[in-house]
Amino acid sequence: MTLAPLIDPFARAISYLRVSVTDRCDFRCTYCMTEHMTFLPKAELLTLEELDRLCSTFVGLGVEKLRITGGEPLVRKGIMTFFQGMARHLETGALKELTLTTNGSQLRKYAADLAAVGVKRINVSLDTLDDQKFAEITRWGRLAQVLDGIAAAQEAGLKIKINTVALKGFNEEELFTLTDWCARQGFDLTFIEVMPMGDMGEAQRVDQYWPLKDLRAQLASRYTLTDLPDRTGGPARYVRLAETGQRIGFITPLTHNFCESCNRVRLTCTGELYMCLGQEDMADLRAPLRASPDDAQLRQAIRAAIARKPKGHDFDYSRQVVKGQMTRHMSHTGG
Ligand code: SAM
Ligand code: SF4
């Protein structure tokens, strides 16, 4: 049975689902979590079987790209069972890409298995190459473990993109170190502007904000930048550095209007579907999922949610105050 694809009220086709499989994490990055986070009781989480059914329903409705995230997706117990399940959609060709965003801490354990199920590329978040600073920003993380995880991913043949949150006064002086390290390793690199997620104090946010136009200008002082036409339907814009050949991305959700081409929605580990990262509106898919073993009700709930996808977000730092701030943490919706 071929089903009509998901098209929102602004004629955007929804082909990309990001799934947060857990809100838990083995790190406590300062911009993402408080030190003493309260996590959801395990009983509230969708089971891996339920996550499989939900994601499979989305694939049946035309979703072609799945990104698994969290929290830290690789700390969810039994996560490889879920990946193995999703691999069947790669085999039929319905799913074009299965990927994940990870902090890298568990890659030594899982990289080979991920490659075996058909994952080709992964995003690894890394904000600094300095041991001390890494410990400071992640609170609980160890840089050596992450670098070893990245090495394991390379050995497994996974293509790696590094995601770095641009933080004023923190990794500004590492701009070239990080860029050159990525160039040597053959990694793409994307910088992300810090976003107002979770209640971490307004002063801290505005302080940490390092506009990517400034970062870009610094890069241009050393390399020759050429804008690339590449679009992913998300907030990333890309340039090529002539000297190293590498692709550098800029994710500027606060300063760039990217919503018109948005192709994505986000599912939390409790079955809430967020139609926009920057808006509070969400749809509960857990109830229709559990209401019946038949998927008709679930599909109907998904379509009703997509029909409410807003035109865009309201983040704004332009007056040195945080507007449009979201009270939920990034680990909830998965970034
Ligand atoms: N734990 C995994 C990781 O760190 O890659 C996946 C989840 S994490 C929430 C996804 C991405 O969101 C990471 O690249 C992280 O740096 C980014 N992130 C978290 N909080 C953020 C914030 N307040 N502003 C911008 N990016 C943020
Ligand atoms: Fe964990 Fe990722 Fe958030 Fe850091 S950014 S605390 S690694 S979920």
Structure keywords:
single chain, 335 residues, alpha/beta, TIM Barrel, twelve-stranded mixed β-sheet, 11 helices, 32% helix, globular, binds S-adenosylmethionine
**CATH homology group:** Aldolase class I
Instruction: Spell out which ligands are present.
Output: S-adenosylmethionine, iron/sulfur cluster
Q: Name the strands of the widest sheet in spatial order.
A: 7-8-9-6-5-4-3-2-1-10-11-12
**Elements, N to C (H/E):** EHEHEHEHHEHEHHEEEEEEHHH
What percent strand?
A: 15-25%
Could you explain how this protein is built, in words?
This protein has a 12-stranded mixed β-sheet with strand order 7-8-9-6-5-4-3-2-1-10-11-12. It is globular. Helix 1 (48-60) packs parallel to helix 2 (79-92), helix 2 packs parallel to helix 3 and helix 3 (107-117) runs parallel beside helix 5. It is of the alpha/beta class and 335 residues long. The chain has one domain: TIM Barrel (Alpha-Beta Barrel). Mean pLDDT is 91; it is low at 317-323. The protein contains 11 helices and 12 strands. The two termini are 33 Å apart. Bound molecules: S-adenosylmethionine (SAM) and iron/sulfur cluster. S-adenosylmethionine binds next to strand 3, strand 5 and helix 11.
Topology, please?
Layout lengths: L15 E5 L27 H13 L4 E5 L9 H14 L4 E6 L4 H11 L3 E5 L5 H8 L4 H13 L3 E8 L8 H11 L2 E6 L8 H7 L3 H9 L4 E4 L7 E6 L5 E5 L12 E4 L4 E3 L7 E3 L1 H6 L4 H11 L23 H4 L2
Parallel strand pairs: 1-2, 1-10, 2-3, 3-4, 4-5, 5-6, 6-9
Antiparallel strand pairs: 7-8, 8-9, 10-11, 11-12
The protein binds S-adenosylmethionine (SAM) and iron/sulfur cluster (SF4).
